[in-house]
Design a protein that fits this description.
Blueprint lengths: L1 H14 L6 H51 L3 H9 L2 E10 L6 E11 L4 E7 L4 E5 L5 E6 L3 H4 L3 H12 L5 E6 L4 H4 L11 H4 L3 H12 L3 E2 L3 H9 L3 E4 L6 E6 L2 E6 L1 H16 L2
Parallel strand pairs: 1-6, 3-8
Antiparallel strand pairs: 1-2, 2-3, 4-5, 6-7, 9-10
Helix pairs in contact: 8-9
Length: 278
């Protein structure tokens, strides 16, 4: 059977007319060229892949180099902190711990310029009518500044409340027990609806006492470097007074103090300029 099949195949090949035209030749050449080009492309791709990988690794190394240097340098973070803290602001609050909930009867905002050794201070009346914010930055209600600590004990709430009211960034806080304001408390009428702190804040003895209380505060996030600078350097304080721009008002039969808009804007500009001075 196999021999018969082989004979038929042999006869078919012999009888078939074999022709190879110009068109056939052209097609064959084109096919060979395509196959050759495909092989060359594959070889080229194999050569390009390692090159691309090498270039990508090199670029990644360049991108990560600054962070490697920063991590290896022990002074990198402290240098940034020093440059950023040549001016800073802090909210000093007197906490009345004798009668919870803990209210803040005294709120003094200080902007500090370490370049020219100057401090600007603003003391807000306890009855100042403000938007009160929680520690997450959500506006909750309008009430007296005095009650912020009672509603939200987290110091961030007080910082945000004063910062948004005045439109001035506040970096740090310092709590001082009201009884520690020994010299200041003699001048403050606790029954008064308007704080008299600004009247005596510029007195040298009072200012010195305030600085001592800030430096020894057990509740503060002011860095030790800045506290040391406040203790060892001689600063000049300027008190920005609000008293002449305060307006008495009653809302739902409750007494509040409001600050004139133009005066508030002027104070904001003064403090921002002080923080931006180099």
């Amino acid at each position: 059977m196999a021999e018969k099949f082989d004979k038929k195949l042999s006869y078919y090949i012999e009888d078939e007319e074999l022709t190879f035209t110009k068109e056939d030749r052209d097609k064959t050449i084109q096919k060979i060229r395509r196959q050759t080009e495909m092989k060359e492309d594959k070889k080229s791709n194999r050569r390009i892949v390692p090159i691309v990988a090498t270039v990508a690794a090199f670029l990644l190394a360049i991108a990560l180099l600054p962070s490697f240097i920063a991590n290896e340098s022990p002074n990198a973070d402290s240098m940034v902190a020093q440059q950023g803290d040549m001016t800073f602001s802090t909210l000093v609050m007197a906490r009345d711990s004798s009668s919870p909930p803990h209210r803040n009867p005294v709120n003094i905002l200080l902007t500090v310029n370490r370049n020219d050794k100057s401090i600007k201070a603003v003391s807000f009346p306890r009855a100042t009518y403000v938007d009160i914010y929680d520690a997450e930055g959500n506006k909750q209600m309008k009430d007296k500044l005095l009650h912020t600590g009672a509603y939200y004990p987290d110091p961030d709430a007080s910082l945000l409340t004063v910062s948004k009211f005045l439109q001035v960034p506040i970096d740090y806080y310092s709590f001082v027990p009201i009884e520690k304001f020994s010299q200041m408390s003699d001048y403050i009428d606790k029954k008064s609806k308007k704080s008299a702190v600004e009247d005596i804040l510029s007195e040298q003895e009072v200012f010195k006492h305030l600085m001592e209380q800030i430096q020894t505060s057990k509740e503060t996030d002011i860095p030790s470097e800045l506290l040391d600078d406040l203790a060892t350097s001689h600063y000049q304080m300027e008190v920005i007074k609000l008293k002449d721009s305060l307006k008495d008002t009653f809302i739902e039969e409750r007494y509040y103090v409001e600050i004139e808009d133009k005066r508030l804007e002027s104070i904001t500009n003064q403090l921002l300029e002080h923080l931006n001075e180099e």
